[in-house]
Specification:
Layout (H helix, E strand, L loop, with lengths): L1 H11 L4 H8 L3 H8 L7 H11 L3 H6 L8 H5 L14 H12 L4 H12 L6
């Protein structure tokens, strides 16, 4: 998958790592790690790439089918959130970058954040 990611960014979209990572709201160093196969591409980043650049998930994951999603399929996509949902939310961007750079923290961070949102029980 890493070679297809590099191909899409560099040869098809003709973007630098910085431009591509800025568009996704991820750290450029993390993108480099994904492109070189040093770090596995997380599923949520794969989906973010596909939504942001109209790339077929099937193509990105397995190299099957056409690179781009047809307009018809895109219109039927139920995902309506903007790809850069955290552009105006710097803390959220930092949290996501931290988790992308440290995937071993993901589960712990999730449970900690969930505990912060749980209402305390009355005695």
């Amino acid at each position: 998958m890493h070679s297809r990611l590099l191909f899409i960014r560099k040869d098809v979209l003709k973007l630098t790592q910085q431009q591509f990572s800025d568009e996704l709201g991820i750290d450029r160093t993390s993108l480099s790690q994904y492109e070189h196969g040093n770090t596995a591409l997380p599923k949520y980043i794969s989906r973010l790439i596909c939504r942001t650049f109209n790339i077929s998930e099937k193509w990105l994951e397995a190299g099957e089918g056409s690179i781009f999603v047809s307009e018809t399929k895109q219109e039927n996509n139920t995902v309506t959130e903007p790809a850069n949902i955290y552009n105006d939310r710097p803390y959220l961007r930092d949290i996501i970058n931290l988790l992308v750079s440290n995937p071993d923290l993901e589960e712990h961070a999730f449970h900690y954040l969930k505990s912060l949102t749980t209402k305390p029980r009355k005695k």
